[in-house]
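Two proteins follow. First one:
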Amino acid sequence: MGNGARGRWVKCGNSKSLFMAKKPTLLVATVGFFIFGCPEMLDHIKVGILVSTTGSYGTVGRTIKNGVLIAVEELKNAGLHLECIAYDPQGNNSNYLKMAEQLLRSGIKNIIGCYTSSSRKKILPVLERYEGLLWYPTHYEGFENSENVIYTGTSPNHHIYPLIDFMQSTYGNNAFCVGSDYIWAWESNRVFKNMFMDKGGSIVGEDYLPMDCDRMDAVIEKILKIRPSFIFNTLVGGSSYHFFRKFRKACEKENIKQTEHMPIASCNLSEGDLYEIGEEAADGHYSSSVYFSSVDTVENKRFVSKYKNKFPDQCLPTVESEAAYIATRMLAAGIIQCAPEERQEIQEIKKAAASFRFRAPQGEVMLDPLNFHAFLTPRIGRSTKQGEFEIVKQSNTPIQPDPYLINNVNCLVHSRDRSEEVGTA
Protein backbone atom coordinates (compact mmCIF):
# COMPACT_ATOMS: atom_id res chain seq x y z
CA MET A 1 0.00 0.00 0.00
CA GLY A 2 3.08 2.19 0.11
CA ASN A 3 2.53 5.84 0.87
CA GLY A 4 -1.20 5.36 0.95
CA ALA A 5 -0.85 3.58 4.28
CA ARG A 6 0.97 6.38 6.00
CA GLY A 7 -0.72 8.07 8.92
CA ARG A 8 -0.27 11.00 11.22
CA TRP A 9 -0.20 11.46 14.96
CA VAL A 10 -3.40 12.58 16.60
CA LYS A 11 -3.95 13.93 20.09
CA CYS A 12 -5.23 11.24 22.41
CA GLY A 13 -8.32 11.37 24.49
CA ASN A 14 -11.66 9.80 23.79
CA SER A 15 -11.44 10.21 20.04
CA LYS A 16 -12.46 7.23 17.91
CA SER A 17 -9.88 5.43 15.82
CA LEU A 18 -9.82 6.14 12.10
CA PHE A 19 -8.62 3.73 9.49
CA MET A 20 -7.38 3.71 5.93
CA ALA A 21 -9.75 5.11 3.37
CA LYS A 22 -8.73 2.55 0.78
CA LYS A 23 -8.66 -1.12 1.72
CA PRO A 24 -8.07 -4.28 -0.27
CA THR A 25 -10.95 -6.67 -0.78
CA LEU A 26 -10.46 -9.11 2.06
CA LEU A 27 -12.37 -11.41 4.35
CA VAL A 28 -13.60 -9.03 7.04
CA ALA A 29 -14.58 -10.05 10.56
CA THR A 30 -15.56 -8.68 13.92
CA VAL A 31 -14.43 -10.14 17.22
CA GLY A 32 -16.35 -13.29 18.13
CA PHE A 33 -18.25 -13.84 14.87
CA PHE A 34 -16.08 -14.62 11.89
CA ILE A 35 -16.53 -18.30 11.10
CA PHE A 36 -19.49 -17.67 8.87
CA GLY A 37 -19.55 -20.04 5.95
CA CYS A 38 -18.03 -22.83 8.06
CA PRO A 39 -20.70 -25.57 7.87
CA GLU A 40 -19.32 -28.00 10.43
CA MET A 41 -17.48 -28.04 13.74
CA LEU A 42 -13.76 -28.39 12.99
CA ASP A 43 -12.57 -30.46 15.91
CA HIS A 44 -9.15 -30.93 17.45
CA ILE A 45 -6.81 -29.15 15.10
CA LYS A 46 -3.55 -29.22 17.04
CA VAL A 47 -1.51 -26.05 17.56
CA GLY A 48 1.73 -25.70 19.50
CA ILE A 49 2.34 -23.03 22.13
CA LEU A 50 6.06 -22.56 22.73
CA VAL A 51 6.72 -19.80 25.25
CA SER A 52 8.54 -19.46 28.56
CA THR A 53 5.98 -19.09 31.33
CA THR A 54 8.74 -19.44 33.93
CA GLY A 55 12.23 -17.98 34.03
CA SER A 56 13.50 -14.43 33.56
CA TYR A 57 10.69 -13.24 31.32
CA GLY A 58 8.04 -15.68 32.53
CA THR A 59 5.52 -12.94 33.35
CA VAL A 60 5.50 -11.71 29.75
CA GLY A 61 5.51 -15.32 28.53
CA ARG A 62 2.36 -16.04 30.51
CA THR A 63 0.63 -13.07 28.90
CA ILE A 64 1.45 -14.53 25.47
CA LYS A 65 -0.08 -17.87 26.41
CA ASN A 66 -3.08 -16.08 27.89
CA GLY A 67 -3.74 -14.24 24.63
CA VAL A 68 -3.76 -17.55 22.76
CA LEU A 69 -6.16 -19.12 25.26
CA ILE A 70 -8.67 -16.27 25.03
CA ALA A 71 -8.73 -16.59 21.24
CA VAL A 72 -9.06 -20.39 21.48
CA GLU A 73 -12.06 -19.98 23.79
CA GLU A 74 -13.73 -17.54 21.39
CA LEU A 75 -13.06 -19.82 18.44
CA LYS A 76 -14.49 -22.85 20.21
CA ASN A 77 -17.69 -20.94 20.89
CA ALA A 78 -17.82 -20.06 17.18
CA GLY A 79 -17.26 -23.59 15.89
CA LEU A 80 -13.52 -24.23 15.67
CA HIS A 81 -11.71 -26.31 18.28
CA LEU A 82 -7.95 -25.71 18.42
CA GLU A 83 -6.23 -28.22 20.67
CA CYS A 84 -3.21 -26.49 22.21
CA ILE A 85 -0.08 -28.45 23.06
CA ALA A 86 1.97 -26.16 25.29
CA TYR A 87 5.64 -26.33 26.25
CA ASP A 88 7.58 -24.10 28.65
CA PRO A 89 11.27 -23.75 27.64
CA GLN A 90 11.96 -21.78 30.86
CA GLY A 91 13.89 -19.09 28.96
CA ASN A 92 16.50 -21.60 27.73
CA ASN A 93 17.19 -21.47 23.99
CA SER A 94 18.34 -25.11 23.89
CA ASN A 95 14.96 -26.07 25.32
CA TYR A 96 13.24 -24.02 22.63
CA LEU A 97 15.03 -26.01 19.94
CA LYS A 98 14.31 -29.37 21.57
CA MET A 99 10.65 -28.62 22.24
CA ALA A 100 10.01 -27.08 18.80
CA GLU A 101 11.36 -30.26 17.23
CA GLN A 102 9.14 -32.39 19.47
CA LEU A 103 6.06 -30.42 18.38
CA LEU A 104 6.96 -30.57 14.70
CA ARG A 105 7.86 -34.26 14.74
CA SER A 106 4.48 -35.02 16.29
CA GLY A 107 2.84 -33.60 13.16
CA ILE A 108 1.97 -30.12 14.45
CA LYS A 109 2.59 -27.59 11.70
CA ASN A 110 1.72 -24.31 13.45
CA ILE A 111 3.48 -23.01 16.56
CA ILE A 112 2.56 -19.78 18.33
CA GLY A 113 5.33 -18.46 20.51
CA CYS A 114 8.89 -17.39 21.24
CA TYR A 115 9.50 -14.05 22.94
CA THR A 116 13.18 -13.30 22.43
CA SER A 117 14.72 -12.97 19.00
CA SER A 118 17.43 -15.46 19.98
CA SER A 119 14.80 -18.14 20.67
CA ARG A 120 13.08 -17.39 17.36
CA LYS A 121 16.31 -17.70 15.43
CA LYS A 122 17.24 -20.84 17.35
CA ILE A 123 14.22 -22.76 16.05
CA LEU A 124 14.28 -21.53 12.42
CA PRO A 125 16.32 -24.54 11.18
CA VAL A 126 13.82 -27.09 12.54
CA LEU A 127 10.89 -25.08 11.19
CA GLU A 128 12.50 -25.29 7.77
CA ARG A 129 13.35 -28.98 8.11
CA TYR A 130 9.83 -30.03 9.10
CA GLU A 131 8.00 -27.36 7.06
CA GLY A 132 6.47 -25.77 10.13
CA LEU A 133 5.15 -22.24 10.63
CA LEU A 134 5.94 -20.00 13.60
CA TRP A 135 3.44 -17.30 14.49
CA TYR A 136 5.71 -14.81 16.25
CA PRO A 137 3.71 -12.53 18.58
CA THR A 138 6.13 -9.88 19.75
CA HIS A 139 8.09 -6.79 18.74
CA TYR A 140 11.31 -7.50 16.96
CA GLU A 141 14.30 -5.81 15.35
CA GLY A 142 13.35 -6.46 11.72
CA PHE A 143 15.66 -7.52 8.89
CA GLU A 144 14.48 -11.10 8.73
CA ASN A 145 12.83 -12.88 5.82
CA SER A 146 11.66 -16.41 6.55
CA GLU A 147 9.14 -18.51 4.68
CA ASN A 148 8.42 -20.20 8.01
CA VAL A 149 7.43 -17.21 10.15
CA ILE A 150 4.41 -14.89 10.32
CA TYR A 151 5.13 -11.77 12.38
CA THR A 152 2.11 -10.39 14.25
CA GLY A 153 4.22 -8.16 16.51
CA THR A 154 5.67 -4.77 15.66
CA SER A 155 8.23 -4.04 12.97
CA PRO A 156 10.92 -1.41 13.66
CA ASN A 157 9.03 1.31 11.78
CA HIS A 158 6.09 0.73 14.14
CA HIS A 159 8.00 1.32 17.35
CA ILE A 160 11.58 2.62 16.98
CA TYR A 161 10.89 5.45 14.55
CA PRO A 162 7.87 6.87 16.43
CA LEU A 163 9.80 6.70 19.72
CA ILE A 164 12.76 8.63 18.27
CA ASP A 165 10.50 11.33 16.93
CA PHE A 166 8.62 11.69 20.21
CA MET A 167 11.56 11.59 22.61
CA GLN A 168 13.76 13.88 20.54
CA SER A 169 11.10 16.53 20.14
CA THR A 170 10.02 16.28 23.79
CA TYR A 171 13.24 15.70 25.74
CA GLY A 172 16.29 16.45 23.64
CA ASN A 173 19.12 15.24 21.46
CA ASN A 174 21.37 13.24 23.81
CA ALA A 175 20.55 9.57 24.31
CA PHE A 176 22.21 6.82 26.34
CA CYS A 177 21.57 3.25 25.10
CA VAL A 178 21.50 0.34 27.55
CA GLY A 179 20.48 -3.17 26.54
CA SER A 180 20.78 -6.90 27.05
CA ASP A 181 23.77 -8.46 25.36
CA TYR A 182 21.98 -10.26 22.52
CA ILE A 183 20.53 -9.73 19.06
CA TRP A 184 17.33 -7.84 19.91
CA ALA A 185 19.25 -5.11 21.73
CA TRP A 186 22.17 -5.00 19.28
CA GLU A 187 19.96 -4.59 16.23
CA SER A 188 17.38 -2.32 17.88
CA ASN A 189 20.14 -0.02 19.11
CA ARG A 190 21.77 -0.03 15.67
CA VAL A 191 18.52 1.10 14.05
CA PHE A 192 17.89 3.61 16.83
CA LYS A 193 21.39 5.11 16.61
CA ASN A 194 21.36 5.45 12.83
CA MET A 195 18.00 7.18 12.73
CA PHE A 196 18.60 9.30 15.84
CA MET A 197 21.92 10.63 14.54
CA ASP A 198 20.44 11.23 11.08
CA LYS A 199 17.95 13.52 12.84
CA GLY A 200 20.70 15.46 14.62
CA GLY A 201 20.87 13.48 17.85
CA SER A 202 23.97 12.29 19.70
CA ILE A 203 24.61 8.92 21.36
CA VAL A 204 26.43 9.84 24.56
CA GLY A 205 26.85 6.29 25.85
CA GLU A 206 26.10 2.65 25.12
CA ASP A 207 26.31 -0.39 27.41
CA TYR A 208 25.23 -4.03 27.22
CA LEU A 209 24.59 -6.29 30.19
CA PRO A 210 24.19 -10.08 30.41
CA MET A 211 20.67 -11.49 30.46
CA ASP A 212 19.39 -11.69 34.07
CA CYS A 213 22.17 -9.36 35.25
CA ASP A 214 21.43 -7.55 38.51
CA ARG A 215 24.71 -5.64 38.77
CA MET A 216 23.68 -2.16 37.65
CA ASP A 217 25.90 0.16 39.68
CA ALA A 218 28.56 0.79 37.02
CA VAL A 219 26.18 1.63 34.19
CA ILE A 220 23.98 3.75 36.45
CA GLU A 221 27.00 5.68 37.71
CA LYS A 222 28.01 6.33 34.10
CA ILE A 223 24.53 7.59 33.19
CA LEU A 224 24.37 9.89 36.20
CA LYS A 225 27.74 11.36 35.28
CA ILE A 226 26.77 12.00 31.65
CA ARG A 227 23.18 13.20 32.34
CA PRO A 228 21.65 12.32 28.94
CA SER A 229 18.35 13.77 27.75
CA PHE A 230 16.85 10.28 28.01
CA ILE A 231 17.77 6.59 28.18
CA PHE A 232 16.88 4.19 25.37
CA ASN A 233 16.32 0.86 27.10
CA THR A 234 16.53 -2.53 25.38
CA LEU A 235 17.07 -4.65 28.48
CA VAL A 236 14.94 -7.79 28.72
CA GLY A 237 13.36 -9.63 31.63
CA GLY A 238 14.89 -9.56 35.10
CA SER A 239 17.78 -7.28 34.17
CA SER A 240 15.32 -4.67 32.94
CA TYR A 241 13.33 -4.80 36.18
CA HIS A 242 16.51 -4.40 38.24
CA PHE A 243 17.58 -1.42 36.14
CA PHE A 244 14.31 0.47 36.50
CA ARG A 245 14.24 0.02 40.27
CA LYS A 246 17.91 0.78 40.91
CA PHE A 247 18.04 3.74 38.55
CA ARG A 248 15.04 5.33 40.24
CA LYS A 249 16.65 4.90 43.67
CA ALA A 250 19.97 6.29 42.45
CA CYS A 251 18.26 9.37 41.04
CA GLU A 252 16.32 9.93 44.24
CA LYS A 253 19.57 9.74 46.20
CA GLU A 254 20.96 12.52 43.96
CA ASN A 255 17.73 14.56 44.30
CA ILE A 256 17.01 14.09 40.59
CA LYS A 257 13.42 13.75 39.44
CA GLN A 258 14.17 10.91 37.07
CA THR A 259 10.90 10.96 35.10
CA GLU A 260 11.42 14.60 34.13
CA HIS A 261 15.17 14.90 33.68
CA MET A 262 16.28 11.42 32.53
CA PRO A 263 13.19 9.50 31.40
CA ILE A 264 13.51 5.91 30.21
CA ALA A 265 12.10 5.07 26.79
CA SER A 266 11.58 1.50 25.56
CA CYS A 267 10.07 -0.46 22.70
CA ASN A 268 9.50 -3.54 24.84
CA LEU A 269 7.94 -2.19 28.05
CA SER A 270 4.49 -3.59 28.74
CA GLU A 271 2.03 -3.97 31.59
CA GLY A 272 3.67 -7.28 32.49
CA ASP A 273 7.00 -5.54 32.97
CA LEU A 274 5.43 -2.79 35.10
CA TYR A 275 3.89 -5.51 37.26
CA GLU A 276 7.38 -6.93 37.91
CA ILE A 277 9.08 -3.54 38.37
CA GLY A 278 6.69 -2.67 41.17
CA GLU A 279 4.75 0.45 42.10
CA GLU A 280 7.76 2.26 43.58
CA ALA A 281 9.45 2.61 40.17
CA ALA A 282 6.80 1.81 37.55
CA ASP A 283 5.58 5.30 36.69
CA GLY A 284 6.75 7.91 34.21
CA HIS A 285 8.39 5.67 31.61
CA TYR A 286 7.66 5.77 27.89
CA SER A 287 6.82 2.79 25.74
CA SER A 288 6.44 2.79 21.97
CA SER A 289 3.99 0.07 21.10
CA VAL A 290 0.84 -0.73 19.13
CA TYR A 291 -1.32 -1.89 22.02
CA PHE A 292 -1.91 -0.94 25.63
CA SER A 293 -4.67 -2.25 27.88
CA SER A 294 -5.97 1.33 28.01
CA VAL A 295 -6.76 1.50 24.25
CA ASP A 296 -10.23 2.97 23.93
CA THR A 297 -12.07 0.64 21.55
CA VAL A 298 -15.15 -1.51 22.05
CA GLU A 299 -13.12 -4.56 21.06
CA ASN A 300 -10.44 -3.82 23.64
CA LYS A 301 -12.92 -3.26 26.46
CA ARG A 302 -14.35 -6.69 25.68
CA PHE A 303 -10.85 -8.20 25.47
CA VAL A 304 -9.67 -6.69 28.77
CA SER A 305 -12.85 -7.82 30.52
CA LYS A 306 -12.39 -11.40 29.32
CA TYR A 307 -8.72 -11.32 30.26
CA LYS A 308 -9.38 -10.07 33.80
CA ASN A 309 -12.12 -12.64 34.33
CA LYS A 310 -10.00 -15.53 33.05
CA PHE A 311 -6.73 -14.48 34.72
CA PRO A 312 -7.78 -12.46 37.79
CA ASP A 313 -4.50 -12.88 39.68
CA GLN A 314 -2.21 -11.79 36.84
CA CYS A 315 -1.20 -8.46 35.32
CA LEU A 316 -3.26 -6.62 32.73
CA PRO A 317 -3.09 -7.81 29.10
CA THR A 318 0.02 -6.72 27.23
CA VAL A 319 0.97 -6.01 23.63
CA GLU A 320 2.28 -9.57 23.54
CA SER A 321 -1.11 -10.89 24.74
CA GLU A 322 -2.83 -9.05 21.94
CA ALA A 323 -0.30 -10.11 19.30
CA ALA A 324 -0.74 -13.75 20.36
CA TYR A 325 -4.51 -13.29 20.21
CA ILE A 326 -4.15 -11.82 16.70
CA ALA A 327 -1.88 -14.70 15.65
CA THR A 328 -4.39 -17.28 16.84
CA ARG A 329 -7.31 -15.57 15.10
CA MET A 330 -5.36 -15.26 11.85
CA LEU A 331 -4.24 -18.89 12.03
CA ALA A 332 -7.85 -19.95 12.53
CA ALA A 333 -8.94 -17.87 9.54
CA GLY A 334 -6.25 -19.52 7.45
CA ILE A 335 -7.37 -23.00 8.50
CA ILE A 336 -11.01 -22.28 7.74
CA GLN A 337 -10.30 -20.81 4.32
CA CYS A 338 -8.20 -23.82 3.29
CA ALA A 339 -9.61 -27.04 1.93
CA PRO A 340 -9.11 -29.97 4.37
CA GLU A 341 -6.26 -31.40 2.29
CA GLU A 342 -4.47 -28.01 2.36
CA ARG A 343 -4.47 -27.50 6.15
CA GLN A 344 -1.05 -29.10 6.58
CA GLU A 345 0.48 -26.94 3.83
CA ILE A 346 1.96 -23.84 5.42
CA GLN A 347 2.06 -21.85 2.20
CA GLU A 348 -1.69 -22.38 1.77
CA ILE A 349 -2.29 -21.34 5.38
CA LYS A 350 -0.18 -18.21 4.84
CA LYS A 351 -2.00 -17.30 1.64
CA ALA A 352 -5.39 -17.71 3.31
CA ALA A 353 -4.38 -15.78 6.43
CA ALA A 354 -3.16 -12.88 4.28
CA SER A 355 -6.70 -12.50 2.91
CA PHE A 356 -8.12 -11.88 6.38
CA ARG A 357 -8.51 -8.68 8.36
CA PHE A 358 -10.43 -7.96 11.52
CA ARG A 359 -10.90 -5.43 14.28
CA ALA A 360 -8.53 -6.55 16.99
CA PRO A 361 -8.42 -4.87 20.42
CA GLN A 362 -5.94 -2.27 19.07
CA GLY A 363 -8.00 -1.60 15.91
CA GLU A 364 -7.98 -3.04 12.45
CA VAL A 365 -5.16 -5.47 11.61
CA MET A 366 -4.14 -7.42 8.53
CA LEU A 367 -1.05 -9.07 7.05
CA ASP A 368 1.07 -7.62 4.29
CA PRO A 369 1.12 -10.46 1.73
CA LEU A 370 4.54 -9.31 0.51
CA ASN A 371 6.40 -9.97 3.76
CA PHE A 372 3.86 -11.52 6.17
CA HIS A 373 4.31 -8.83 8.78
CA ALA A 374 1.24 -7.08 10.18
CA PHE A 375 -0.31 -3.68 9.60
CA LEU A 376 -0.52 -2.22 13.13
CA THR A 377 -1.35 1.12 14.80
CA PRO A 378 1.63 2.82 16.54
CA ARG A 379 1.13 4.47 19.93
CA ILE A 380 3.24 6.10 22.63
CA GLY A 381 2.27 5.41 26.23
CA ARG A 382 3.44 6.79 29.56
CA SER A 383 3.38 4.38 32.48
CA THR A 384 1.51 4.92 35.75
CA LYS A 385 1.94 3.59 39.30
CA GLN A 386 -1.14 1.45 38.72
CA GLY A 387 0.73 -0.61 36.12
CA GLU A 388 -1.06 0.87 33.12
CA PHE A 389 -0.18 3.29 30.32
CA GLU A 390 -1.65 6.66 29.53
CA ILE A 391 -1.63 6.95 25.74
CA VAL A 392 -0.10 10.31 24.84
CA LYS A 393 0.10 9.95 21.05
CA GLN A 394 -1.09 7.53 18.41
CA SER A 395 -1.46 7.08 14.69
CA ASN A 396 -4.86 7.53 13.13
CA THR A 397 -4.40 4.52 10.81
CA PRO A 398 -2.82 1.08 10.79
CA ILE A 399 0.66 1.46 9.32
CA GLN A 400 2.17 -0.79 6.69
CA PRO A 401 5.07 -2.83 8.10
CA ASP A 402 8.53 -1.90 6.87
CA PRO A 403 10.69 -4.60 8.51
CA TYR A 404 13.68 -3.88 6.28
CA LEU A 405 13.37 -0.07 6.66
CA ILE A 406 13.36 0.42 2.92
CA ASN A 407 11.75 3.83 3.27
CA ASN A 408 14.23 4.78 6.03
CA VAL A 409 11.90 7.54 7.18
CA ASN A 410 9.38 7.86 9.96
CA CYS A 411 6.01 6.99 8.47
CA LEU A 412 4.20 9.19 11.00
CA VAL A 413 3.92 12.95 11.21
CA HIS A 414 3.41 14.52 14.61
CA SER A 415 0.72 16.73 15.83
CA ARG A 416 1.95 19.56 18.03
CA ASP A 417 4.79 19.10 20.51
CA ARG A 418 3.40 18.17 23.94
CA SER A 419 6.61 18.59 25.92
CA GLU A 420 4.97 21.14 28.16
CA GLU A 421 2.38 18.51 29.15
CA VAL A 422 4.47 15.36 29.54
CA GLY A 423 7.93 16.49 30.54
CA THR A 424 10.67 19.00 30.03
CA ALA A 425 12.29 19.50 26.65
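Second one, unrelated to the first:
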Amino acid sequence: MATIINADTSDGLKLTSDTSGQIDFQSAGSTKATIDTSGNLKFDSGFGSVGTAYGVRAWVSFNGTGTVAILNSGNVSSITDNAVGKYTVNFTTAMPDDDYSVSGTAQDTTSGSGTSAPSVTMKDDTSSITTSALIIDVVTGNGAAFMDSTFVSVQIIR
Protein backbone atom coordinates (compact mmCIF):
# COMPACT_ATOMS: atom_id res chain seq x y z
CA MET A 1 0.00 0.00 0.00
CA ALA A 2 1.00 3.64 -0.19
CA THR A 3 -0.20 7.15 0.26
CA ILE A 4 -2.28 7.70 -2.86
CA ILE A 5 -3.18 11.02 -4.44
CA ASN A 6 -5.79 10.26 -7.10
CA ALA A 7 -7.28 12.73 -9.57
CA ASP A 8 -10.58 10.87 -9.94
CA THR A 9 -12.62 11.73 -13.03
CA SER A 10 -15.94 11.73 -11.16
CA ASP A 11 -15.21 12.85 -7.60
CA GLY A 12 -12.17 15.11 -7.98
CA LEU A 13 -9.06 14.72 -5.83
CA LYS A 14 -8.96 11.74 -3.47
CA LEU A 15 -6.33 11.11 -0.81
CA THR A 16 -5.75 7.80 0.95
CA SER A 17 -2.76 7.06 3.12
CA ASP A 18 -0.90 4.54 5.21
CA THR A 19 2.48 4.39 6.95
CA SER A 20 4.48 2.68 4.17
CA GLY A 21 6.34 5.86 3.18
CA GLN A 22 5.59 5.47 -0.52
CA ILE A 23 3.57 8.07 -2.45
CA ASP A 24 1.60 7.15 -5.59
CA PHE A 25 0.18 9.76 -7.94
CA GLN A 26 -2.80 8.47 -9.87
CA SER A 27 -5.15 9.61 -12.59
CA ALA A 28 -8.52 7.84 -12.70
CA GLY A 29 -7.13 5.10 -10.43
CA SER A 30 -4.10 4.33 -12.63
CA THR A 31 -0.64 5.02 -11.12
CA LYS A 32 1.26 7.58 -13.21
CA ALA A 33 4.14 8.38 -10.80
CA THR A 34 5.59 7.03 -7.55
CA ILE A 35 8.10 8.23 -5.00
CA ASP A 36 9.30 5.08 -3.25
CA THR A 37 10.69 4.73 0.26
CA SER A 38 14.27 5.19 -1.06
CA GLY A 39 13.32 8.54 -2.60
CA ASN A 40 13.40 7.23 -6.19
CA LEU A 41 11.03 9.01 -8.58
CA LYS A 42 9.28 6.57 -10.88
CA PHE A 43 6.84 7.51 -13.59
CA ASP A 44 4.90 6.26 -16.61
CA SER A 45 5.68 8.28 -19.73
CA GLY A 46 3.18 6.41 -21.83
CA PHE A 47 5.13 3.15 -21.99
CA GLY A 48 2.57 1.23 -19.92
CA SER A 49 4.50 0.85 -16.68
CA VAL A 50 6.04 2.96 -13.94
CA GLY A 51 9.87 2.95 -14.08
CA THR A 52 12.68 4.74 -12.23
CA ALA A 53 13.74 8.09 -13.72
CA TYR A 54 17.47 8.69 -14.05
CA GLY A 55 18.00 12.39 -14.28
CA VAL A 56 20.58 14.65 -15.80
CA ARG A 57 22.62 15.72 -12.76
CA ALA A 58 24.58 18.39 -14.66
CA TRP A 59 24.75 19.81 -18.15
CA VAL A 60 26.52 22.63 -19.94
CA SER A 61 26.84 24.20 -23.35
CA PHE A 62 29.83 26.47 -23.85
CA ASN A 63 31.98 28.30 -26.37
CA GLY A 64 35.40 26.63 -26.20
CA THR A 65 37.28 29.14 -28.33
CA GLY A 66 39.21 32.19 -27.10
CA THR A 67 38.04 33.00 -23.58
CA VAL A 68 35.85 30.00 -22.72
CA ALA A 69 32.29 31.08 -21.95
CA ILE A 70 29.34 29.09 -20.61
CA LEU A 71 26.29 29.65 -22.81
CA ASN A 72 23.90 27.88 -20.44
CA SER A 73 24.15 25.22 -17.77
CA GLY A 74 22.68 23.35 -14.85
CA ASN A 75 24.81 22.36 -11.83
CA VAL A 76 28.00 23.55 -13.56
CA SER A 77 29.89 26.34 -11.79
CA SER A 78 32.62 26.91 -14.37
CA ILE A 79 34.65 25.57 -17.29
CA THR A 80 38.45 25.55 -17.14
CA ASP A 81 40.35 25.82 -20.43
CA ASN A 82 43.31 23.46 -19.91
CA ALA A 83 44.74 23.62 -23.46
CA VAL A 84 43.54 23.40 -27.06
CA GLY A 85 40.52 21.07 -27.00
CA LYS A 86 40.97 20.20 -23.29
CA TYR A 87 38.47 21.39 -20.68
CA THR A 88 37.46 20.75 -17.08
CA VAL A 89 33.74 20.88 -16.25
CA ASN A 90 33.39 21.92 -12.57
CA PHE A 91 30.19 20.97 -10.74
CA THR A 92 28.28 23.38 -8.46
CA THR A 93 27.05 20.47 -6.32
CA ALA A 94 29.23 17.37 -6.19
CA MET A 95 28.04 14.05 -7.59
CA PRO A 96 27.31 11.32 -5.00
CA ASP A 97 30.12 9.23 -6.54
CA ASP A 98 32.14 9.02 -9.74
CA ASP A 99 30.00 6.32 -11.36
CA TYR A 100 28.08 8.64 -13.67
CA SER A 101 27.59 8.57 -17.42
CA VAL A 102 28.86 11.33 -19.71
CA SER A 103 27.65 12.29 -23.16
CA GLY A 104 28.74 15.19 -25.32
CA THR A 105 28.85 16.80 -28.73
CA ALA A 106 30.91 19.50 -30.40
CA GLN A 107 30.63 21.59 -33.52
CA ASP A 108 33.30 21.56 -36.23
CA THR A 109 34.50 25.15 -36.51
CA THR A 110 37.12 24.60 -39.20
CA SER A 111 35.99 25.36 -42.73
CA GLY A 112 36.94 22.74 -45.29
CA SER A 113 38.76 20.61 -42.73
CA GLY A 114 37.88 17.43 -44.62
CA THR A 115 37.21 15.55 -41.39
CA SER A 116 34.02 14.20 -39.93
CA ALA A 117 32.30 15.77 -36.92
CA PRO A 118 34.46 16.25 -33.82
CA SER A 119 34.06 14.05 -30.75
CA VAL A 120 33.88 14.79 -27.04
CA THR A 121 35.99 12.21 -25.22
CA MET A 122 37.50 11.56 -21.79
CA LYS A 123 41.07 10.77 -20.83
CA ASP A 124 42.05 7.11 -20.64
CA ASP A 125 42.57 7.17 -16.90
CA THR A 126 40.29 7.41 -13.88
CA SER A 127 41.59 10.85 -12.91
CA SER A 128 39.33 12.44 -15.55
CA ILE A 129 36.17 11.70 -13.52
CA THR A 130 35.74 12.86 -9.91
CA THR A 131 32.73 13.83 -7.82
CA SER A 132 33.54 17.54 -8.24
CA ALA A 133 34.72 17.80 -11.86
CA LEU A 134 35.10 16.07 -15.20
CA ILE A 135 37.94 16.47 -17.71
CA ILE A 136 36.89 16.25 -21.37
CA ASP A 137 38.71 16.51 -24.68
CA VAL A 138 37.37 17.68 -28.04
CA VAL A 139 39.11 15.92 -30.91
CA THR A 140 38.82 16.14 -34.68
CA GLY A 141 36.53 13.62 -36.33
CA ASN A 142 39.42 11.35 -37.23
CA GLY A 143 40.86 11.68 -33.70
CA ALA A 144 44.16 12.99 -35.02
CA ALA A 145 44.24 16.27 -33.09
CA PHE A 146 42.67 18.25 -30.26
CA MET A 147 40.54 21.21 -31.35
CA ASP A 148 38.68 24.15 -29.86
CA SER A 149 35.02 24.43 -30.79
CA THR A 150 32.56 27.34 -30.69
CA PHE A 151 29.88 24.99 -29.34
CA VAL A 152 30.47 22.11 -26.91
CA SER A 153 27.63 20.39 -25.07
CA VAL A 154 28.07 17.91 -22.19
CA GLN A 155 25.47 16.02 -20.12
CA ILE A 156 26.13 14.07 -16.91
CA ILE A 157 23.56 11.40 -16.03
CA ARG A 158 23.36 9.50 -12.74
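SUMMARY FIELD: DSSP finds no helices and 14 strands in the chain. Residues 56-157 form one domain.
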